[in-house]
Specification:
95 residues; mainly alpha; transmembrane; transmembrane helix; membrane
Length: 95
């Protein structure tokens, strides 16, 4: 029978308390949610609070400009998220 004796003076391999890949994955999730909320809150502020997106308080020209600009900003957000997750995926495939 083989006995496993642990030598208290033997140096153990130091490793982080959690997996760094998992940490970076959750950091990307937090970044995605934070930037998404930021884009949505900016849209709500300009569209509802300032009235650019509300037909009752805005002209058709201002509404058109608001929705075109907000659409472009939202597409830029989606492009940013796509690039961020694609980069994250490529880093972990190669390692």
């Amino acid at each position: 029978m083989e006995e496993n004796h642990h030598n208290p003076f033997e140096q153990e391999e130091r490793r982080p308390p959690f997996d760094m890949k998992t940490f970076h994955y959750f950091a990307n999730i937090i970044k995605t949610i934070f930037y998404g909320f930021f884009v949505m809150m900016a849209g709500i502020f300009f569209g509802l609070y300032l009235g650019y997106g509300d037909p009752k308080y805005s002209t058709p020209k201002l509404m058109t400009i608001f929705y075109v600009v907000y659409g472009i900003v939202f597409l830029a957000y989606l492009f940013f998220v796509f690039k961020m997750w694609r980069k994250h995926h490529k880093e972990h495939i190669s390692s």
